[in-house]
Amino acid sequence: MPNATELSEAGVSFAKGSDITSLLDIKFESSGLMTIPCLTIKRDTETILRNLIAYEKQSSDVQLSKYFSHYDVFMNNLIDSEKYVNLLRQKGITVNLMGDDKNLAIILLILTTIQTILAFIGSVK
């Protein structure tokens, strides 16, 4: 999947979603508008998301969707450095209460790395 800047250069515009019911309430309209729910990064956001992703990966409940894992993969593809975080922050899609944009890019990279490790551990069992 192209990152946020590549999508923007291809004519896709971004907006903060309204009437959001979930993090995955991401919409792409034929006009080229992608609406994405706002992600607010606080001091404990990375820990909470990491634990939820680990729970999803280790759960034997076949009914459980990989909700947070899918969200992380989407956002990590969209944001692969701080300049992409900046683009989405300007549109109100990300709110980073932890400091600079680089922190959010690093958090998403860490979460994706954890998913890869957990997938490997699961395949070795």
UniProtKB/TrEMBL annotation:
**Keywords (A to Z) from UniProt:** Membrane, Transmembrane, Transmembrane helix
Q: Does this UniProt record's set of keywords contain Membrane?
A: yes
Q: Report the InterPro entries cross-referenced here.
A: DUF247_pln
What Pfam families does the database record attribute to this sequence? DUF247 (PF03140)
Lineage: superkingdom: Eukaryota
Chain ranges passing through the membrane: 104-124
What this protein is called in its record is Uncharacterized protein
